[in-house]
Amino acid sequence: MTQPAPARRKKQLVTKRVTVPGNFDRCCCEFNAGRFFEAHEWIEEIWQFERGPVRDLYKGLIQVAAGFVHISRGNQFGASRLLTTALGYLDPYRSAAGMGWDVETIARDTEDALRRVHELAPSRLAEFDLARRPLFAFDRAKLRAESVRWHAWGFDADGNAEEMEITVAE
User: Fold this and answer.
1) Which residues contact 108 (CB under 8 A, 6 or more apart)?
2) What pLDDT does 75 receive?
3) Domain count, the chain
4) Is the CA virtual torsion 162, 46, 111, 38 positive or negative?
5) pTM score
6) Does any domain span residue 12?
């Protein structure tokens, strides 16, 4: 007799207070520690509320993290697809240092990762050296001017980070 699948916990809406720099910090820490899904979650909280031009920058960072989730799960197709689309989202920001992120370095390292994903047969994706992944970092000193430049969500008109109340499913 087969056992029924365990019941999935229903997601609940949770209201919390965040700052963009705080979520950036958490995203960087999680990604650089190899916790790619968690990194994606932190940046996604900001992305879902951003309506300006840096929304695509955030989407690119989310997709880099999601691509590495697929690499770590051995899904070559998913990794290739997400890293490719991530590069498309990041491309316009490569020379612009969007929101203090070193987009050029992240994109270059993501291109290298994508090449390695393509070089490995699907059955060999476990050989991918995660130590050679991009490292996520942003320059806090640039964030104030960048937030004004991009009219980014979560900052006042002078570029000061504001604590924002958001509701997310957890």
Assistant:
1) none
2) 95
3) 1
4) positive
5) 0.91
6) no
- In residues, how long is the chain? 170
Note whether residue 11 is domain-resident: no
DSSP state of 129: -
Q: What mean pLDDT value characterizes the chain?
A: 93
Tell me the C-alpha distance between 136 and 99, whole Å. Answer: 13
Q: % helix / strand / coil in the chain, to the nearest 5?
A: 60, 10, 30
DSSP state of 101: B
Pairing state of beta strands 13-18 and 164-169? antiparallel
Q: How confident is the model at residue 170 (pLDDT cuts 50, 70, 90)?
A: confident
Q: What is the rounded distance in angstroms from the CA atom of residue 99 to the CA atom of residue 62? A: 15
Is the Cβ–Cβ distance between 53 and 148 less than 8 Å? no
